[in-house]
Amino acid sequence: MQLIVNERNFSQEVLESSTPVLINFWAPWCGLCRLMTPMLNQLQADWEGQIKLVTINADENFKLANTFRLTTLPTLLLVDGDNVLHRFDHFASRDDIRNASTSFNAVLSSLVGSYSYTA
After folding, report:
1. Where does 1-119 have alpha helices with state H?
2. Residue (of 93, 82, 89, 86) closest to 112 by Cα position
3. Tens place of pLDDT for every residue, the chain, 119 residues?
């Protein structure tokens, strides 16, 4: 399940996170955004504890959408603190979403190797 983030808790949940955060910017009217949910849930399960997955409704959080200069939805950002490590956007079809899943795993594999986790 994705954590719902807004302008009030963004700093705490994203900027202060001890793990990299994958931000899913979406809107209720966006059909491709809804198609992303199963892929994102699978990514979260595959990378449990190594990344944090959050969702932000771009329509309700205009300041955040503007801060990250969103031009299309869905937009996915992999961030570490206030650094954007990778940006995924301009999805046009289900095939783009499937291809993104492979790209996410490659990016996350390279990123996670640079972090050390302790229990």
Report:
1. 10, 31-46, 62-67, 94-112
2. 86
3. 789 999 999 999 999 999 999 999 999 999 999 989 888 988 888 888 888 999 999 999 999 999 999 999 999 999 999 999 999 998 888 888 878 878 877 887 887 666 555 44
Closest CA relative to residue 76, chosen from 66, 61, 91: 91
Query: How big is the chain, counted in residues?
Result: 119
Active site residues: 30, 33
Residue entry with tokens 């990250």: 68
Q: So what's the pLDDT on residue 119?
A: 44
Amino acid at 37: T
Domains of the chain by start residue, with CATH:
3-112 (3.40.30.10)
Q: How far apart are CA 65 and CA 52, in angstroms?
A: 19
CA distance 21 to 52: 5
